[in-house]
């Protein structure tokens, strides 16, 4: 089980299944919303319990992005046609025991850093 929260603590969540697909997303939307890049993993919707006031932003026709309306922490990503929810790895209490599996949307990454951790990359 994992527990997470936003910066101010108004939004908390509990993950009750093993997180899958731990990844870092370098796409333009995650770059802008997070200020750099966004690390997340996902579980089925039934395996994550969210408490508190989440604000949702429809960044595209396919998914929405959830954040704390008070402190702005970018916590969730939810595709409309999938029954999974992605949550921010950075919001989890430590230790997580998790390891990144991949970098995604690397073709869209910022030009001011290199990825040099040896974790597989996909465009
Ligand atoms: Zn907050």
Automatic annotation (TrEMBL):
Gene Ontology terms, MF aspect: carbon-sulfur lyase activity; metal ion binding
Which part of the chain is the CENP-V/GFA domain? Answer: 2-114
Task: Quote the InterPro entries the UniProt record gives.
Answer: CENP-V/GFA, Mss4-like_sf
Q: Which UniProt keywords apply?
A: Lyase, Metal-binding, Zinc
**Chain segments annotated as coiled-coil in the UniProt record:** none
A single Pfam family, by name? Answer: GFA
Identify the domain of life. Answer: Bacteria
Q: Which SUPFAM superfamilies match?
A: Mss4-like
Gene3D superfamilies xrefs: glutathione-dependent formaldehyde- activating enzyme (gfa)
Q: Which family does it belong to?
A: Belongs to the Gfa family.
Q: What is the protein named?
A: Uncharacterized conserved protein
